[in-house]
Specification:
5-stranded mixed sheet; 12 strands; binds pyridoxal-5'-phosphate
Length: 398
């Protein structure tokens, strides 16, 4: 039974019951039902007005109990004032950007981002008269120099995809605010279990809940969380654009999040162990993970995060045949065009997340033909590490 109470408990306890939305306690289901309905009936016009006033449920594109429950859970997780749950991570990112910028505005963005986020800024918004500059956000002097009077949004990922660089969120928030801009952070790779960008000064945090938050690779969903006035603008836009999360995905993701605080730290532990083992392998040219002492932002990551995250990338020699042999030799890690699931998966940015970039653009940010992105699951750590080492030996020993 989900008792409503003002008493505060620890995160690992509260994550099990926040954002429930079962207003009829007579049935008291152990798990919230799924409200698969397009609309909710009202008795008369007074009742309709009351529903509007109370942010109640009328039409599914506006509000639905499962979506509201997920949004409420996200507000709790990310320490925001309010949230909207969206149909995907990209829906959350595009809704956030469109609610902040208009024709003539400028976006300053980190240069290593999920490829489709870059396309939203440069191609989609570029076509509507919004200019974006992509720069290295680990260089704060460059950030200060690149900000313009019309810069309305600074945009970054907590840990960049796929180069695993770590921007200083507090410093970026300060720079944004000094110049009247907002800082928007994509927290997909870390989740609120390891980092809360809003606590570090960000104005809006976006999440692809498809990934670590849900963790079961069975739903596409996203969320946007932040200050109530900013979320209200994004909500208005969401209703117009129809970027809302559907009830079933909202329900699945809420279920997934219940165990996030067990999964994500374990995934981060596995990633650290794998990164350290691969860094010693004679076959791996480079390992990118903030747990490594030689990672350029290792100290910052230690201070900014509760763990180093479940994502790493490695650079192998540019040899397609050997890479194929290595992938085939692995028992657990398998290729999947997603990340954050409970099983370890691999992705090849050249052919997936960054396939729309020219080779020159890719190489500028370090995405070589040998780069593999690894999303760690919750397997036994020794099993996982040994499997990688054995597969490398099989593929590269001669
Ligand atoms: C960092 C990051 N943000 C956003 C997205 C987009 O999420 P979705 O696929 O849920 O739209 C992805 C997808 O891989 C991602 O890696």
């Amino acid at each position: 039974m989900f008792k409503e109470s003002d008493k505060e408990f620890s995160f690992e306890t509260e994550i099990l019951s926040k954002g429930v939305y079962i207003k009829n306690p007579t049935t008291n289901p152990e798990v919230a039902p799924i409200f698969m309905t397009t609309a909710f009936n009202v008795e008369d016009l007074d009742a309709l007005e009351q529903r509007y006033d109370e942010r109640g449920f009328c039409y599914n594109r506006n509000r639905n109990p499962n979506r509201s429950a997920l949004a409420e859970l996200m507000t709790y997780l990310e320490h925001g004032e309010d949230s909207i749950a969206c149909s995907s991570g990209m829906a959350a990112i595009s809704t956030a950007a469109l609610s902040i910028v208009k024709k003539g505005d400028h976006i300053l963005s980190d240069m290593t981002l999920y490829g489709e986020s870059m396309e939203i800024f440069s191609d989609l918004l570029g076509g509507y008269g919004v200019e974006t500059t992509f720069i290295d956000f680990t260089d704060l002097e460059l950030v200060k120099k690149s900000i313009r009077p019309n810069t309305k949004m600074l945009y970054t990922e907590t840990v960049s995809n796929p180069m695993i660089t770590v921007p200083n969120l507090r410093a970026l928030a300060d720079i944004a605010h000094e110049h009247g801009a907002l800082l928007v952070v994509d927290n997909t790779f870390m989740t609120a279990a390891l980092c809360r960008p809003l606590d570090l000064g960000a104005d809006i945090v976006v999440n692809s809940l498809t990934k670590f938050a849900n963790g079961h690779s069975d739903a596409v969903c996203g969320a946007l969380t932040g200050r109530a006035d900013l979320v209200a603008k994004a909500y208005h836009l969401q209703v117009l654009l129809g970027t809302q999360a559907d009830p079933f995905s909202s329900w699945l993701v809420q279920r997934g999040i219940r165990t996030m605080d067990l999964r994500v730290p374990k995934q981060a532990e596995n990633a650290s162990a794998l990164a350290h083992a691969l860094a010693k392998s004679p076959y791996v040219l480079k390992v990118n993970h903030p747990s490594l002492e030689n990672h350029p932002q290792h100290e910052l990551a230690k201070a900014q995060f509760k763990g180093f995250g479940g994502m790493l990338s490695i650079e192998l020699p540019d040899d397609r045949q050997k890479m194929n042999k290595f992938m085939r030799a692995l028992h657990f890690a398998h290729y999947a065009m997603t990340l954050g699931g409970y099983r370890t998966s691999l992705a090849y940015p050249v052919l997936s997340s960054h396939s729309d970039m020219s080779e020159e653009e890719r190489l500028k940010i370090g995405i070589t033909n040998g780069l593999l992105r690894i999303s760690c699951g919750i397997e036994n750590t020794d099993d996982l590490v040994n499997d990688f080492l054995e597969a490398l030996e099989i593929a590269y020993k001669d």
